[in-house]
Design brief:
323 residues; alpha/beta; 9-stranded mixed beta sheet
């Protein structure tokens, strides 16, 4: 019998958390699952943990990449190995509540949605319970892209992640959708929004359904990205999101949050004033700024973003230091 859901778990430097993650997916109340855990050539004991769990439960398939290639490649390997009609993504340092898969499948069955989204609960690194991850909205929402992208803006935070969601495996393969391996940051934002705008699925969102436990891990790769790599990744992401919106004939607002994040990253992660000023000088003369960041933020940025652009236009580049 084929599984109902494939759970894809990219694993890199998660030996401290991996056993909890694997137990949480193997102990789901809906048991007809395939679990594909992909070791991204992790230098710790991740591979040994995966082999141990795989020897104890045939539903777990361990995939070992020959070299470290990043989370996008690991997730893509999971997509390639999927046997089930639905895919769920789980990070190797997070975990699922016992009824997560059962809840997602019930939502899909009840609504006939092609894309099912639910909520997550934040936890500290020590496992202490925190707030709901998506808390700006409440209740059950059923949406289609025909409603217009404005209907999706209140939920934009939710579409920045690939977890706590149910994706169609057939759709991913038919559209040849993959995570962008060139991105080292926010790959799931581009992946999820591309799925939304190109597939144009019927979407159901239930903010009252907690199907994911998100660990706020201070050692996460996201927190350790060097500034140059962070900016390079944001450049690719901003261009891709802006081009995606325009090709789908949707408002360019899609790239506004990441355009603002680029400027914030310059201020926050620059080592000193000299580095920040040099990076800002290069940005202001770049096609990225002229073709994407500036027009997007002028139209869709918050008031503070529009004011910052005015200061930059006037040559007051020091304004970024205080913004």
């Amino acid at each position: 019998m084929l599984p109902d859901v494939t759970i894809v778990i990219p694993c890199y430097k998660v030996e401290k958390y991996l056993a909890q993650t694997l137990r949480s997916v193997l102990q789901q109340t809906h048991a007809n699952l395939q679990i594909v855990a992909v070791d991204d050539c992790s230098p710790d004991h991740t591979a040994e943990i995966l082999r141990q769990f795989a020897s104890q439960d045939s539903r777990l398939q361990a995939v070992f990449l020959p070299q470290n290639s990043g989370v996008s490649v690991a997730r893509n390997a999971g997509i390639d190995a999927a046997l089930a009609p639905w895919i769920v993504f789980v990070d190797g340092d997070d975990w699922l509540p016992p009824q997560a898969i059962e809840i997602l499948l019930a939502l899909q069955d009840r609504t006939g949605a092609d894309f099912v989204c639910a909520n997550a609960r934040q936890y500290s690194d020590a496992g202490e319970t925190g707030e709901l991850h998506f808390r700006r909205q409440t209740g059950l929402h059923e949406l289609t892209i025909e409603d217009g992208l404005n209907a999706f803006w209140p939920h934009q935070d939710l579409f920045c992640t690939c977890w706590a969601k149910l994706f169609s495996t057939a759709t991913l393969r038919d559209r040849q959708m993959r995570f962008d391996a060139a991105l080292r940051h926010a790959q799931d934002t581009l992946f999820t929004l591309t799925y939304l705008l190109t597939v144009r699925p019927k979407v159901v969102i239930d903010y009252g359904a907690e199907v994911y436990c998100y660990r706020q891990n201070p050692a996460s790769c996201v927190h350790a990205i060097p500034l140059e790599k962070r900016l390079n990744s944001l450049e690719l992401l901003i261009s891709a999101l802006d081009n995606l919106a325009q090709s789908a004939r949707q408002p360019r607002r899609l790239a506004a949050p990441k355009s603002a994040e680029y400027l914030w990253a310059l201020r926050k992660f620059s080592a000193n004033d000299a580095q920040r000023n040099e990076l800002l000088r290069k940005l202001l003369s770049s096609p990225l700024f002229g073709e994407h960041i500036q027009p997007v933020l002028r139209q869709f940025g918050k008031f503070k973003h529009r004011m910052l652009l005015r200061f930059l236009d006037a040559g007051l580049t020091s304004a970024l230091r205080f913004w």
